[in-house]
Design brief:
The protein has 459 residues and is of the alpha/beta class. The protein contains 19 helices and seven strands. 41% of the residues are buried.
Length: 459
């Protein structure tokens, strides 16, 4: 049986070797291809060693892919031979920094305006995901290694000024656009473009890391599924916790598209709902409302905001009926949609405990922390730039004072607060500008300290 690594390795060699030839190395083509095959070997060996397990499935795939390409100890070797020789011991260290070959391509791209390093990145990530897919169970160590490797290469590309996919179209994080329940008609967006949009969001570092772990795991599972291999049955539903305005809806919308790209759902749209749309006042109506909401979300993601409100009102409240129906539909339609329940941390813990079926169906929680003052200023700047305004130094200082003074209690407005402050500042500036006979362009676009509301407690 052909190694599952054979195709990705061949594609890597075909993509990277010609780039080296363009650099006028003077080496024959077969030598260049061998050097690139060695690079691919180092990459795959590092990922196999990332969790230290070196399973038979991993080692047979390594032997099958590279023994025909390289004069090495892999020729006629078995997994036991590879383990005994210590051939992969310490290989994970290879991932700690960019390789010499990658650095060479980046330098050439920066000098010549080419895109060879981007091609290396694309095919290297495919190799990395394939290596992580060799076992039925992908470990956390492998997922962490995938994200560190991606971050290392992207960091080099960014410092070299090489744009990444989707960079020009990244959306601001401050406030989600109005919900769209209609399924998008456009083709699924590339995963790299969606991850670039995720990275462009202000703050949320821990959230981004969690989402990338989810995306990497799903990408690996998709590879296994396409090869007809076993994929562990695991729930994809999520709990989002955090105060309002921390980007939960924005990230849910991106996740819906990521799920579509990775073939978890068919459409990738987001449907938002809450207690008021799910719970009715008469017996039997609540279950119908919940089913209708699930029907709209089929093929996409259903976001239940303030889900904890469903457990309020006691045992006879119809919210309990809604929870029971949600539990049943989450199980019955587990292959057709993903459900995210969101709300304040303590209340969401109580919600998950409200029904024995919720804990197993919502095993992963992603917490969205409040934004820092620096992050809120950045969100304000982003909103201002988009609307062609700017803050002068005094206005920026006034904004920071207002944000620092805002109580960071339950219900702190976060991104919504930044948006409210921006809208109030624009309104105040307009009232000031109309008193000027013929304002200059600079006056029209500049927000001053007097325009910034002193009270930043707007919810």
């Amino acid at each position: 049986m052909e190694s599952p690594l054979a195709g990705p390795v061949a594609d890597f060699v075909r993509a990277v070797a010609p780039a080296l030839a363009v650099l006028d190395s003077g080496l024959p083509a077969d030598r260049l291809e061998r050097d690139v095959a060695v690079e691919a070997y180092e990459l795959v060996a590092a990922f196999i060693d990332s969790d230290g397990l070196h399973t038979d499935d991993e080692l047979w795939a390594l032997i099958g892919a590279f023994a025909p390409l390289m004069d090495s100890q892999l020729y006629r070797a078995t997994p036991a031979d590879v383990r005994t020789s210590g051939l992969l011991a310490g290989k994970r260290a290879w991932l700690a920094k960019p390789s010499l070959l990658f650095d060479t391509l980046v330098t050439a791209d920066r000098r010549n305006g080419t895109h060879h390093a981007r091609s290396y990145y694309t095919h290297a990530m495919r190799l990395a995901h394939t290596a992580a897919s060799l076992d039925a169970l992908t470990t956390t160590a492998e997922l962490d290694a995938l994200e560190r490797f991606r971050g290392t290469l992207l960091g080099v590309l960014e410092r070299a000024g090489v744009p990444r996919a989707g960079e020009a179209t990244s959306a601001p994080a401050a406030e989600p656009v109005p919900p769209q329940e209609a399924a998008p008609q456009e083709p699924a967006r590339p995963l790299e473009e969606l991850l670039a949009e995720l990275d462009a969001l202000i703050g949320l570092d821990a959230v981004k890391a969690e989402v990338k772990l989810v995306a990497n795991l799903l990408a690996v599972q998709r590879l296994r599924r396409k090869r007809g291999l076993n994929v562990p049955d695991a729930s994809r539903h999520l709990v989002f916790t955090g105060n309002p305005g921390t980007g939960k809806t924005t990230v849910a919308r991106l996740l819906a598209q990521i799920y579509r790209t990775l073939e978890v759902v068919e459409k990738g749209h987001l449907v938002e709902t809450d207690r008021s749309h799910l719970v009715a006042g008469y017996v039997g109506q609540t279950a119908t409302r919940v089913r209708e909401t699930f029907d709209r979300a089929m093929g996409g993601v259903l976001l239940v905001d303030e889900a904890y409100a469903l457990v309020r009102g006691g045992e006879n409240d119809f919210g309990r009926e809604a929870i029971d129906t949600i539990v049943k539909l989450v199980e019955d339609r587990r292959d057709a949609l993903v459900v995210i329940v969101a709300g304040y941390p303590d209340e969401m813990a109580a919600f998950v405990e409200a029904n024995p079926g919720l804990r197993s169906r919502f095993p992963r929680t992603i917490h969205f922390p409040d934004y820092s003052t620096d992050e809120l200023v950045a969100i304000f700047d982003q909103l201002a730039a988009k609307a062609e305004y700017r803050l002068d130094d005094e206005a920026r200082a006034a904004l920071r004072l207002a944000l620092d003074a805002a109580p960071r209690d339950r219900g702190f407005g976060n991104g919504r607060l930044a948006r409210n402050l921006f809208e109030q500042a624009v309104a105040a500036q307009a009232s000031r500008i109309v008193e000027i006979g013929e304002p200059t362009d600079a006056q029209l676009v500049t927000l001053e300290a007097a325009d910034i509301p002193a009270d930043a407690t707007v919810r």
